[in-house]
Design a protein that fits this description.
The chain is α+β, with helices and mostly antiparallel strands. The protein has 27 helices and 13 strands. The strands form 4 sheets. Strands 1, 2, 3, 4 and 6 form a 5-stranded antiparallel beta sheet that branches. A 4-stranded mixed beta sheet has the order 5-10-9-7. It has a two-stranded antiparallel ribbon with strand order 8-11. The termini are far apart.
Length: 623
């Protein structure tokens, strides 16, 4: 009988270890057939979880939970409990740390500090697993390999090794029996989520869907072949960026549980003294990281979702190296454009449109009443926007938004949760370098450049929306966008100028063209007036026109094209500026249909002004 039970357990073990993709139905079938292992694990997990729930329930009944210090204590207690329960619970805690729509702010803050680190496992076990997965003797693969790991996390650990050809490599080895433990724990956590969903009405979000998303991501992380492919894709994406480094992957020495990559000698960005000893400015490294993250998010739509200090290294040659590509995520082009549109509405303080953006992006159901959400957005953002985007405190704003998302029926798309996690982690690293760092201030120049340069139709509309307030063109907003875009060292000035011309001659650019027509008309009229004054000066006294000399006409602001002057002043500050970039576009400007229309309007208005003067002169009226 004992042999039969052991055989059944082993069969479950084999079935679970063979799962290459997360499939909750298959996992359920495995553990329903032989519940012994399930009951054993339930005893190990549910008893401490139940004890924790009872203690929190007691605090809530007695009112102690209203005390922030007690609430924080319980939040810390839960964080420690998740670490004790193992990898699946650690990953669940990390997933919840990005979900302000599900958990309150205090718990959110504590879970965000949850470290994905566990003690390492036996070096002999690691060597055994390498040999089994690569189907080679360890001595046939490596000249030397350290049995003691240099680092260990919840899913695996890393060993330093030297290949037969002398190449130094890092070998990532998965924990033995990890897939079996993860599948069992996910089965337990998912059933807890089902019970909570069916019995606790206060929980709005679909916890089961959250666990399924978590299961899918954890299975992706456990597949080191998938991680190797992610690394290659990331490397290809940034191959033209000389400031970014990605370790080489040795595919022939990689399997689902073993990943061999180039060994990178670098310094964590948070070790400021060591970074400075390399002759590198830590602020510059942070700027490279921020720009790279934004490029991943807004251009490629494929981003590194776990840029913690251990995964970002400063290299001696001044490059920033990314490590660990197990947790990557994708953002669709529509979602990328939608996020930029939301920023436009935020900057314009158009909170009504911002609420509709959240519906389009999948944060809110189309059935949700948006009316009470608009003033909530206003309360969160108005003061922050008044300070200016460059001074906005991202962490403070996201904390305030967490309260709104917890209060109203928000459901965060998985990609957004990972974006927030990525940016908050990056800002945390940056703050260790510069206590005054503001990630939105660092990001806005890149955002401005994308808004000015990107030909995407949705972003063209967003640019117009940004620059027009009702029917009035806001020159200060254009100047602000250009000034911020100019901070980008790789700004394509010619492309930017083409987009400004496209805006000028677009259907919606009529108001802008009218402003330029009026400005040019007044400027030409100013020249005409100067000519009349000069001629009048040399006429005999009997023929002189009675001109009021103290009139402000000449110096009047309408006789200057100030916005155009501002535009040129901003462009002149951009590296690579040359008058040639304007001269090259003269043929295009001449052939624009709207340009001919503008020329006709200018001629008409100048003629009208000249006729008015002639009438006044003929009547002997002082001018």
């Amino acid at each position: 009988l004992k042999y039969k039970v052991m055989k059944e357990d082993f069969k479950d073990f084999i079935e679970a270890s063979g799962l290459l993709e997360y499939d909750p139905d298959t996992i359920s079938k495995i553990y329903r057939k032989n519940p012994k292992r399930l009951f054993k694990r339930l005893w190990q997990t549910l008893i401490p979880i139940f004890a924790y729930i009872v203690s929190v329930g007691f605090d809530k009944i007695t009112g102690k939970l209203k005390n922030e210090s007690q609430a924080r204590y319980r939040a810390k207690q839960l964080t420690a409990l998740l670490v004790e329960l193992g990898p699946a619970f650690v990953k669940a805690g990390q997933a919840l740390s990005t979900r302000p729509d599900i958990i309150p702010v205090v718990l959110l803050e504590e879970l965000s500090q949850l470290q994905d680190q566990l003690p390492g496992f036996s070096g002999d076990k690691a060597m055994e697993l390498i040999e089994k997965d690569l189907d080679k003797n360890i001595n046939d693969i490596f000249l030397k390999i350290d049995k003691d790991p240099i680092s260990a996390a919840s899913l695996g650990q890393v060993h330093k090794a030297i290949l037969k050809d002398g190449e130094v490599v890092a070998v990532k080895v998965q924990r033995p029996g990890l897939r079996e433990q993860i599948t069992l724990d996910l089965y337990i956590v998912r059933n807890i989520a089902i019970w909570l969903k069916n019995n606790i009405g206060l929980i709005r979000s679909d916890l089961v869907a959250l666990i399924d998303e978590l299961g899918k991501r954890v299975f992706e992380e456990m597949d080191y072949i998938n991680e190797a492919e992610n690394a290659e894709k990331f490397r290809n994406m940034h191959q033209k960026n000389i400031k970014i480094a990605v370790p080489k992957i040795y595919n022939e020495l990689t399997s689902r549980r073993v990943l061999t990559m180039e060994w990178i000698e670098g310094t964590k960005l948070t070790n400021l003294d060591d970074v400075k000893k390399l002759g590198i400015d830590p602020d510059e490294m942070i700027d490279i990281g921020v720009q790279c993250s934004l490029e991943q998010l807004l251009e490629h739509g494929f981003f590194h979702a776990d840029p913690h200090p251990g995964n970002l290294l400063a290299l001696e040659d001044g490059r920033l190296c990314y490590l660990d590509f197990g947790m990557m995520s994708e953002v669709s082009r529509d979602s990328r454009s939608g996020l930029i549109q939301a920023v436009v509405h935020l900057v314009n303080k158009n909170f009504d449109k911002l609420s509709h953006d959240f519906v389009k992006l999948g944060f809110l159901s189309s059935e949700v009443n948006l009316e009470p959400i608009v003033p909530a957005f206003q309360d969160v953002f108005v003061n922050a926007i008044e300070l200016g985007v460059s001074k906005m405190d991202f962490k403070s704003v996201t904390d305030d938004m967490s309260g709104v998302m917890y209060k109203f029926p928000f459901k965060l798309p998985p990609y957004y949760a990972l974006i927030i996690r990525s940016l908050i982690t990056l800002e945390g690293i940056a703050l260790s370098v510069d206590p005054n760092f503001k990630i939105l201030g660092a990001a806005y120049p890149y955002f401005a450049r994308r808004l000015m340069e990107d030909p995407d139709p949705q972003l063209r509309e967003s640019l117009k929306e940004m620059l027009f307030d009702n029917k009035e063109f806001k020159w200060d907003r254009l100047e602000d966008l250009l000034s911020n875009a100019a901070k980008q060292t790789d700004l394509d000035l010619e492309k930017l100028l083409d987009e400004v011309i496209n805006l000028l001659f677009s259907q919606k650019g009529g108001f802008l063209r009218d402003e330029l027509v009026n400005g040019l008309t007044n400027q030409i009229d100013k020249i005409n007036w100067k000519v009349i004054k000069n001629i009048n000066y040399y006429l005999p006294k009997s023929l002189k026109i009675n001109i009021i000399q103290n009139q402000n006409t000449v110096n009047d602001v309408i006789f200057s094209i100030e916005p155009f002057t501002k535009f040129l002043n901003v462009l002149q500050k951009v590296p690579g500026y040359s008058i040639d970039i304007f001269l090259k576009r003269i043929p295009r400007l001449i052939n624009e249909p709207y340009a001919k229309e503008m020329s006709f309007k200018i001629a008409q208005k100048v003629t009208e002004k000249s006729v008015v003067r002639l009438v006044k002169l003929a009547a002997g009226t002082s001018i």
